[in-house]
Amino acid sequence: MAGIGGIVDLRGRRIDGSLVERMVRAATGPNDGTVVRDGNEKLQIYSVPIAVEKPSLTWSRDGTIVVVADARLDSALPGQTAGHALLSDYEQHDTLTRASLDGDFAVVLIDSKKNLALAARDPMSMRPLVFYYADGLLLFASEPTHVLATGLMPRQIHERAVGGHLAGGVLNLSWTFFEGIHQVEPAHIVAIDRDGFHSNRFWNLEPQAGTPTDQMEAAENLAWLLQNSVKARLPVENAGIMLSGGLDSATLAAAAARTRDQFRLPNSIKAWSFAYTETPEADERAVSGPLASALGIPVVDVDAEQTPPLADFPSGPDENDPLYGHYQPLLARTISRAAGDNVESMMLGNRGDLVVGSDIHDPWSMFIEGGWSRLMLELSHMGRKSTGSALWLDVVRPALVDRLPMPIRRRAISSRSRPWQSWVDPDFAEATGMAVLMIDATPRPPKPGPTGRRFQAILSPFQMRVATWMQRMHTQQGIRFVDPWSGSEIIRFVLGLAPGIVQAPSSPKQISRLALETMVPRDLVVPLSKTIPLPFIDQHLRGPAAVHVRELLSGMHGEELRFVREREMRAHFEEFVRGKALDGNFWAALTLEMWLRNFW
Fold first, then answer.
1. Sheet containing 196-201: which strands, arranged edge to edge?
2. Closest by CA position to 284, among listed 272, 296, 295
3. DSSP 3-state assignment of 160?
4. Run of H or E residues at 462
5. How confident is the model at residue 545 (pLDDT cuts 50, 70, 90)?
6. Which domains can be identified in the chain, with CATH numbers?
């Protein structure tokens, strides 16, 4: 693992040093660097860096202010550490300002004179940070389990977080799965003093003004922004990238290679690609391989069929969160191999689809630009059964929903007879407010329409949770997870573009495709297309993994706790085995059961 943590008594009482020792033991792993501890009777802090990083505990000259940082700041001056940049900002402005809070970071600043702590986290959830506060005592750490290791609070499940997990995986970003332990929300500063704590947003995702109206000019600008974002995140020596056949990772690979060559950096870049031999329709190496070769990036093939879903059973989710993906065993194996090759950071294009893709379009602009024929042509690419359904689902309905006031949307959802799956215990669903958990957690866009929907996709609470999940898997192996698509300048730029410049149904991710063509020959770009190996996943779950699923669906802990109903879950799975589609939320209920069995 890696991260930061500490205990401070804002009422001046002495701290038991053994408590911090327990937190350090919970936070450290075999691939961590030197643990640095510091403090006094009323303040104990630590930093556990990944082996290739430097710890960051930064004190003011008079020793009254300390910054504890797990951070990569774009705002830091050349040669300036993140801690010194933040300390300088605080000493000038008496707070942490937006000017210094730019990058990937989790930061806690403690001012002993004021008995004040400020905890801040980056807007895209790239570094985790949680805290517990009671009667002037503050504990903070990168993970809830590090706080729980002190034994100062009862270990209890936060049931509303479980409800959010079952309701599409979307939960309030201040929650953890442990009662009483709070998460610092992305893009927020939490001010903590003797009287309590309050959270304020320090950053709003404002679309960039004055963006190009010409698509090719916009693509060139995007390519330049991506190269800057990659350069800021490339390690000193060994970088890795998970390379699929899709545009998001391909564009990052090209940006990384161009940055390496243009600035003559000593970086060694290596790619990892998943190989599917028995299900060749899922294998993307035929398109990703030539691109990597042209970029001078060696590729390591990872046999995906040897690490299918549930390959690590009965292991499963991490103790901190029941989130567990179909690919988790495969990802863990790939990251472990990369660690063995001394990779310092691994690039993934997770947010690329949210920034420039997804089914987010502007049909009204299509109609204005090309009339009825253009609109019908584009809608034909949306895969609807009829023109009428396309007009309703892709034109009229989104426009109406975008403009509905939030209280009306909330009432409409909560008035449904049962807006949750049959296997969710209805009493639990009612008690946790499952019907409206998703809409309550969804960020409010600055304006309606396609740009507003893209804003919501990028800031989706589920995607924030996925970012933390990915960071956790990588840091456990001593590797830093980075996603250059999460750069704030890239996101603001794309949100400032006319939606039709970004993409259309007939040309998905067109802006990304054109940006890639400015860096590599077009014949390497044309074949790129992401493939989701759903047939392989379904085949395995119906076959070899079915015995594990049935074991999990027998004597369920989730039913004992009145979260889910076992009989309904078993019935749904057996229908899937016989050929029906698996409900997307079934997997969340199954991974919750794995989490409950392993940790509760």
1. 57-59, 65-73, 103-111, 116-121, 188-193, 196-201
2. 272
3. helix
4. helix 461-475
5. very high
6. 3-201 (3.60.20.10), 215-356+460-530 (3.40.50.620), 363-403 (no CATH)
Q: Give the mean pLDDT of 462-466.
A: 95
Distance CA 220, CA 514 (A): 8
Q: Nearest-5° angle of CA 163, CA 196, CA 466?
A: 35
Band the pLDDT of 78: cuts 50, 70, 90.
confident
Report the C-alpha gap between 180 and 149 in whole angstroms: 14
Instruction: Burial-class residue 214 by CB neighbours within 10 Å (0-12, 13-18, 19+).
Output: exposed
In our burial notation (b when 16+ CB lie closer than 10 A, e otherwise), range 466-487 reads bbbbbbbbbbbbbbbbbbbbbb
From residue 377, how far is each of 283, 390, 502, 570 by CA, in Å? 31, 11, 18, 43
Asked whether residue 135 carries a pLDDT value surpassing 70, the answer given is: yes
Rg (CA), the chain: 24
- 3-class secondary-structure state, position 18: helix
- Mean pLDDT score of the chain: 91
Q: Whose CA is closest to 71, among 152, 157, 2?
A: 2
**Rounded to whole angstroms, how far apart are CA atoms 207 and 496?**
4
Q: Which residues contact 172 (CB under 8 A, 6 or more apart)?
A: 160, 161, 164, 437, 440, 441, 461
Q: Determine which helix (DSSP H) or strand (DSSP E) holds 557, and give its type and residue range.
A: helix 557-560
pLDDT digit string, tens, across residues 238-258: 899 999 989 999 999 999 999
Any bridge partners for residue 8, and if so which? Answer: 43, 138
Q: Which residue has the tokens 């990597």?
A: 292
Asked if residue 320 lies in contact with residue 144, where contact means CB atoms within 8 angstroms, the answer is: yes
**CA–CA gap between residue 281 and residue 136 (Å, rounded):** 58
Axis-axis angle for helices 406-414, 434-441 (nearest 10) = 160
Cβ-based burial of 539 (10 A; exposed 0-12, middle 13-18, buried ≥19): middle
| Count of Cβ atoms closer than 10 Å to residue 201 Cβ | 11
Give the position of tokens 């643990």. 35
Cβ neighbours of residue 183 closer than 8 Å, sequence gap 6 or more: 128, 129, 130, 173, 174, 175, 176
Q: Which two tokens stand for residue 207?
A: 């679309």
Burial 138-161 (b: 16+ CB within 10 A, else e): bbbbbbbbbbbbbebeeeebbbbb
Closest CA to 129 of 441, 457, 464: 464
Helix axes 510-517, 215-233, angle to 10 degrees: 70
**Euclidean distance between CA atoms 348 and 300, whole angstroms:** 15
Query: Which position has the token pair 């290791």?
Result: 149
Separation of alpha carbons 469 and 598, rounded Å:
18
In one letter, which amino acid is 467?
A
Place of tokens 């040669």: 79
The model's confidence at residue 400, banded by pLDDT at 50, 70 and 90, is confident
